[in-house]
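Hello again, I could really use a second opinion on something today. I've been staring at a protein lately and its backbone has me curious. You're getting the sequence in one-letter code plus the fold written as tokens. I'd be grateful if you could look everything over and explain what you see. No rush at all, and the record is pasted right below:
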Amino acid sequence: MTPWTRKLRMGMIGGGQGAFIGGVHRMAAAVDGQIELVAGCFSRDFENTKKTGAELYLDPARCYRSYEEMAEAEAKLPADTRIDFVSIVTPNKAHFGPAKAFLEAGFHVVCDKPMTYSLDEAKQLEQIVQKTGLVFALTHNYTGYPMVREARELFQSGAMGTVRKVLVEYVQEFLAAPLEKEGMKQAVWRTDPAQSGVGGTIGDIGTHAANLLEYITSDPIAEICAEKSTFLPGRVLDEDVNVLLRLKSGGKGMLAACQVAIGEENALRIKIYGSEGALMWEQENPNYLMVARMGEPLRRHTRGSGFASKPAQDVTRLPSGHPEGFIEAFATIYMEAAAAIRAFIDGTPMKSSEYRFPTVHDGVRGLEFITKAVESSDAGASWVKLAP
């Protein structure tokens, strides 16, 4: 294996002027100095793509009119020029097409969540990833926080025992006003089933809550009983969802997702009670993990301390007392995907079981959760099973 002398070359689909999450992805990809953006199709409007490319100092020849054109053109470039992977940051409806095109053209993929528009698309994409053997990373970025890795390690080591109870919530004020009627781009597509899919809030943030629960505990959600609600006139997708959970191990839980919770900013919180201990973590105060053990004082685990586990230390960039947050957690997904892509290029691909970042399989789990939650609610909040 020869030493690496260059950054990985990234292309991007989506993230043009007026978008939010594309800029976040670009910042995250740049944090560790491993990746450079060299090409893109940033919008269905080619003028937007050209303007975005100019702002990012890209070669105009590598700012494309469509993702199809980009996949075909990049595949024809010399190996020392073409992109190594593509980042897909479009609305849900526009995930599957680009992911399929680039995988089949031989490129690795980093994709925003939910992975696809429908469960059927998610299963198709899973088959394509398995067939190609290429790296596919899903940006459930909250899994990248050091104290989430600490929490995961506590459960994987057995220190917390088996799960008895989980309380996880993700609540926001974001859609408490009809922003889509004011033309706000992020609200327009999230409230449109033609672009978002069958789930609104349950897909946008509920999947983050479900993924975080399963990532930390490695205990899959087996059955759910969900009730979804819509409050603002004219909306058809859910704004609020309450879900009872049964876990594979026998543990029970509750998941709440709401985007009309006035006063809340980005309140993702999780409490997990095991047979040997419990833990509590909040995304808005992410550098600390509260851990309880029977008969002992409540302890605060700190990111950056010498007491943190190796998985937490591996994704910590700054000393304790210097807060790390959203961008750094996002960057961790890119850093770990980059390591897997480099290994693939070197001819020593990692097994998907070795990945520390969410994968295509987590994407299928997310669409299964959305689909079954809607199915449960539509059936009068009945219990439904999720795939094993």
Summary: The chain has two domains: 8-142+333-358, 146-318+366-385. The chain has twelve helices and 14 strands. The CA atoms of residues 27 and 337 lie 15 Å apart.
